[in-house]
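hey so i finally got around to running the thing on that chain from the lab meeting. sorry it took forever, my laptop kept dying and i had to restart like 3 times. anyway pasting the input first so we r on the same page abt which one it is
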Amino acid sequence: MVVYNFSAGPAVLPQEVLKKAQAEFLNYAGSGMSVMELSHRAPEFDHIIKEAESLLRELMGIPDNYKVLFLQGGASTQFSMIPLNLALGKKAYYHVAGSWGKKAYTEAVLLSKTLPFEPILLASSEDSNFDRVPSFDSSAIDPQAAYVHLTTNNTIEGTAIYEMPETNGVPIVADMSSNILAAQYRVEDFGLIYAGAQKNIGPAGVTIVIIREDLINTMPALSSMLDYKVQVDNVSLYNTPPTFGIYMSKLVFEHVKSLGGVAKMAELNRHKSGLLYDYIDASAFYQNPVKNPEDRSVANIPFTTSSAHLDKLFCQEAEAAGFKNIKGHRSVGGMRASLYNAFPLEGVEALLNFMKEFEEAHSGD
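ok and heres what got predicted. didnt touch it at all, straight out
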């Protein structure tokens, strides 16, 4: 039985990448050691991390005045690290279009109880269960604020922002965890980008941070591990980094480049998601909860049937048929197909056939 992994993260990795890692697992580059055994100060790993940064810069078109960091702690650690480094003594605005944006704002509010900065809820669609990307009036933003935080892709709810909003000159800080390298963005439109690796880049354990040089803090943060300047000055090697995860990320970057780069990945992702959205839109049996089609994510597609009972049955039968991890998040229900860069087109086509058969069998239930 062929297995298709629809997990929202940790997610499917390219087969070619896994095979190359397997071939090098016991003996990397003739060193006689696995990558997991290399010292992070060794010449072999120095090449890996420098090559990973160079490839990412090329793929995303990262300008020279931005620093690239490979950190630990997941994207969630950035919820604290960003205000600690950027917002002290200032206002910080939060655009909340999903559960992860809400968590970022909640963490900022918690920090503000003991630290001198003011987190402000700029806009939220929580009142309608995050079924849309909320709009806001940019004139309401204090131009002296530290940043406007937003999430470019809402993994749970299936919405995304593709065109950056006007922010009255205030830098945009973006959580790009679930559509980095999957949709095209101009890095120059952001002050800081961060992303957990476990969706489009590599295994869980690596967090990418891309920060404009003028935003790097000059005053020490509360903790050296949470200090961007310390991490920049030590080129991501202040402590032992997630060496194997960075190596796997480098292999993924090589793979994306070989396929034609981010522009090609964005084209493929629009095609894959378009097949599924078109079928859902044409069906009276399936529904997508996102209110505005222009807000739809190409990475994460939630959908439901005509009843909770059929949703449960769909998930059970899909799991048995090899469609793994397709159950939707508990806050949304139904199903969720996560179609990241490494998810194959044939997996989407197989899912559509399964959905058609399920609809034919249960449309009268």
